[in-house]
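Input/output pair, single chain:
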Amino acid sequence: MRSNIVSEAGLPTRLGQWWEGIPFLSSSVVVVCGAIYLACLLVGYDSFAEVCFSPFDVTSHFQVYRIYTAILFHGSLIHVLFNMMALVPLGSELERIMGSVRFLYLIILLATTNAIFHLFIALVVAHNPLYSNEYLLNECAIGFSGVLFSMIVIETSLSGAQHRSVFGLFNIPAKWYPWILLAIFQLLMTNVSFLGHLCGILSGFAYTYGLFNFIIPGPSFYSNIESFSWISSCVRRPKFIVSTGASPSGYLPTYSNPNDTQSDILSGNIWRNITSLIPQRETTVQSEENDGRFPGRGRTLGAPQNQAVNPVSSDSSLQARLLDSSNSDHPSHTVETEVNGRQFADNINATTRTPQQAPVLSNNDVQKLVAMGFDKTQVEVAVAAADGDLNVAIEILMTQQPQ
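Output:
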C-alpha cells in the first residue's frame, strides 16, 4: 500500500517549507551573516580585530562602524549556526508583530544601545577611583548574540508567559529566563563576552520599560519608508510584513499615553508601561447617525437617552452575531422597540435558567490586538472563541495569518 504522501516529503522539501515560513528580514539577516562567514572562510580572513566591537578603538579612534560590523561577523561555524538558529524563532515572532521595517529599526536600535551600555560600563571599570581595570576596555567582541539577548527579554515580556523552559530540561520563572541563560552560557563557554550579553539584557529591559520611547518614530515613519520606490521589490515579496497597525506614539512593544508627562513615565507609570506591552491604535469609528445601514437608534428601557445599544443588521456576518450574543449579560431585561410609530415592550423573562456568563473583553484589549495588525472582525471572533483569554486569542490569530 502506498504510504502517506506527507511522509514521503524529502529533506529538501521540508527545508524549503521551513525557510518559506521565515519572514523577510529575519531570513535576510540569516543569509547576510551566513554569507559573511562563508566569505571569510573562503578567503581566509580572520582579522576580526579590525571589525569587532572594541571600546578602546571606538573611543580613541572614533571607529563607530564597529558597532554594526561586530554583530555581522562570527568567529566559528558553531558560533554562527547557534546564533542564527536562535534568531529564527525570536526574530520571526517579533517581525510578525512589528513588521519588517520596524523590526529592522529595532535591530539597529538594540545594536546601538548595547554598544552604549558596553562602552559606559567599560569606561567606568577602567577609570573609577576605587578599582580600575582596563580589561573590558580592550575587549574585542563579535557576534549577534548581544542583540539576541535583547530580543529574548522583549519576546518574553510580550508573550506574557509565567514560566520558560531551558533547553527543554527544566522550567524557570519567565522573569529569570534571560539571567539563567546568561549564567549557563558563561559557565559552559569560556570564550564568550559576558559584558556583551549583559548589555543585551539591559538594553532589552530598557526597551520594555519604555526608556527608549523618545527615539522611536511613529507609524508614519515606517509607512513612508515602505512607500519608497527603491524597496518596492522587497515590499512586494510574500515574506515581507508591512508595518501596519501601531499606536499613535509608535511604541512597540511598550506603550505610553501621549498625554503623560515625562516625569510620570519615569516615576509612577513604569509598572503600567511593563504590563501594557501591546500598543494601541486609534481607529476611525463611523458615526451611528451617518450610518445608512442602521437608520434607527435603540436604547434600553430606563437608560439615558444618549446611551445607545449596538444594533445588528439582518445580513450581519457570523462574527457579528457571535459578538451580539455576548451582550446578553442580564437574565431578565426589557427591550423597547418602535415599529410603524407604535411602541412594543418585549419582556424576556429567563429567571428559571442561569445562562453562562459571556466572556468580557475591554475595548482597550481589542484595540491592542487591532494595533498588532489583525483585522478587527477576526479579533472579535478570536476573542469569542478564546472565551475572553487574550493570550489564546493571539495564538488563534497567529495561526490564521498567511505564511
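The radius of gyration is 27 Å. The chain has a mean pLDDT of 74.
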